Amino acid sequence: MYPRIIVDLKKLKHNAQRLIDIAHSHNHSIMAVTKVFCADQKLIDVYNELNIDYLADSRIKNLVKMTTDHPKVLLRIPMISEIDVMVSHVEMSLNSELETIKKINQSAKRQDTNHKIILMIDLGDLREGIFNENELINTVQEIMTLEHITLEGVGTNLTCYGGIIPSQETLEKLVSIKVKIEALTAKALKIISGGNSSNLTLLMNGEIPQGINNIRLGESIVLGRESAYGNHLENTYDDVFTFEAEVIESKIKPSVPIGQIGMDAFGNTPEFEDKGIIRRVILGVGRQDVDHEELIPLDTVEVIGSSSDHIIVDVSHSPQTYRVGDTMKFKLTYGSILSLYTSQYIEKHYV
Ligand SMILES: *Cc1c(COP(=O)(O)O)cnc(C)c1O
Predict the structure, then answer these.
(1) What pLDDT band is residue 177 in, cutting at 50, 70 and 90?
(2) What DSSP assignment string belongs to 112-144?
(3) Atom of ligand 1 nearest to the CA of 120
């Protein structure tokens, strides 16, 4: 059945092994991030065979359902409403709110267990993390009084919201915060988590400041690229995931709609380029599953638009005819893997 996303498990394993090797050879532990493929157990099973240090996901539901011996880490700052589930299923989480950490402590006490936290520091990307130095010191002092919380380390996240590219200078700040906290608590921090796939260029050049010892990798494993500049990583695959959809209509029609143009299905006023008469193909997949602009055709065709359940492709310049029942293949971006995987209407096919 179509539409389907095709996962090449051998290529996934190859990429993951390659990134484990890069991380370990630079004395970094690695958190393999599973959110882009909704922590699909078939793929987790591949990771289970590898020497990965932690599996990490931003969604508690993904962490609850996954079966693994690797320690599990919650990446998104926990919601207070999910703390009980988190404490019972996940050994470690990233945090930035003292109020939440106190609630985790209470929950861990009730469940007669302990929870590890990585305190997130905002170095300017302006997503999660403590920004204010006084707040940081106060938070650390308070954490030291919580009996069911272990302050495992500190971390930062860049190039996610603000698009800030990690630099030695920025990461030095994280190291100096580590030093300050260790002086304050008289205890060594175990994990200094410097960032995500956007740290790879620095890491491979040996330019990550001394003291940082962990990296959290999602995109680089699934797409074979670092995410600061979007460069391909040597000896990795960029087609672990591909997508295949079926043609439900194939006709010669004009390229511009006929009549007065009002609003489209999403309330926008569309604009069209007049390319004369073209061959238009409709695929049985739509915006409910994926943003058509995130699909990368493997043929000389142009994806020209979509509605909720249809994607329209100009195939005028293709050597292929594309009859009804034929399929069309695409490579994918991070965003399209994410949304296709999340859609229940998309078959997951493994090779
Ligand atoms: C998603 C996420 C990552 C992984 O980022 P990639 O760019 O996919 O490697 C790392 N850290 C946090 C906090 C995340 O939410």
Answers:
(1) very high
(2) T--EEEEEEE-SSS-SSSB--HHHHHHHHHHHH
(3) 13
Q: Which residues contact ligand 1 via a Cβ below 6 A?
A: 33, 35, 58, 75, 94, 157, 196-197, 216-220, 227
Q: Is the pLDDT of residue 265 over 90?
A: no
Closest Cα to atom 7 of ligand 1 = 197
Q: Which element (helix H / strand E) includes 33?
A: strand 29-33
pTM (2 d.p.): 0.95
CA of 155, closest atom in ligand 1: 13
Q: How confident is the model at residue 163 (pLDDT cuts 50, 70, 90)?
A: confident
- Summarised one tens digit per residue, pLDDT across range 16-38 is 999 999 999 999 999 999 999 99
